Amino acid sequence: MPAPLMSPNVATQAVDAGGVRRTARHTMKAFLLERYGKKRPLRGADVPLPELREGEVLVEVHAAGVNLIDAKIRDGEFKLILPYRLPTALGHDVAGVVVKVGPGARQFKVGDEVYARVDDFRIGTFAEFVPVQEASLAPKPKNLTMEEAASIPLVGLTAWQTLVERAGLQRGQKVFIQAGSGGVGTFAIQLAKHLGATVATTTSAGNTALVKGLGADVVVDYRTQDFEEVLRDYDVVLNSQDGKTLAKSLNVLKQGGRLISISGPPDPDFAAEHSYPGFLRFVMRLLSMGIRRKSRRREVRYSFLFMRANGAQLREITRLIERGAIRPVIDRTFPFSSTNEALSYVESGRAKGKVVIKVK
């Protein structure tokens, strides 16, 4: 059974003389990770309102996207590279309204509708309020609801940083995007198609119409076909699956192609970029040694991508959404009180597109 939320706060929001909402409360409801543990329920609790640091604004959370990384952090899979101080609220995606501006923050004002993938070590969108660095924030797309907007940041930035920033995907190139009906897949297919690429993906037969409607040109039914036997001479592979799939992905790439994995293993470049201590860099070198060796043998390039918050890139994504080039794909929306159920549903792997929590 999920842990229930505690009793409501007595403090409420106030409205100043100019009619602008400002927060007048001192606590908020949040779903907390108290100890690492596989499938361990988050606990609903009243916690102090977060204090703002330099360059941050306080966002009233209207909706929060749910991602597999939330479950992996809860399970303890990232505690070496993301050592959070517990207890902490989980949640990476937010759409909401700015209710307070912190020191040094100049880009946004109280009342602005915004969305973001919040920064590592400042996560916590499974809550009524969350602090966000202005550099990680962008105006919410005008043509999306709060729930639709909350579904975008993490998967949108993952796709952008893979296909645009890392791969430099060009018109006429071929890209293989695994798990096309998932959160990253549904966004990445649309972005790749907008960039003018030929797009291949894997999914089940029941989701073929969905991924074709998003722009997939070649659809491989993973239950009856082996993508390794169907696809040839691709320029880019976005890998989001297990190690076996990662190794097979090398065989669909042309010479000089790019294999970019968002599911690991981390490589030495990633370790160097994040200035990890020597033992962690050594571990990451060992973990990725096999795939890096195979990549060199086939004359393709392997890299690991761990997406990061980026408000400027999110603004680019906003422009594409407002022009109709990309649309959100949402499977289910859960009430805030059902945050644990939403997390379990994402873990099940059944979601087509994104899962969202409606907070306000």
From TrEMBL:
It comes from the Bacteria. It holds the Pfam family ADH_N. GO terms for molecular function: oxidoreductase activity. This is Zn-dependent oxidoreductase, NADPH:quinone reductase. It comes from Roseateles depolymerans. The lineage of its organism: Bacteria, Pseudomonadati, Pseudomonadota, Betaproteobacteria, Burkholderiales.
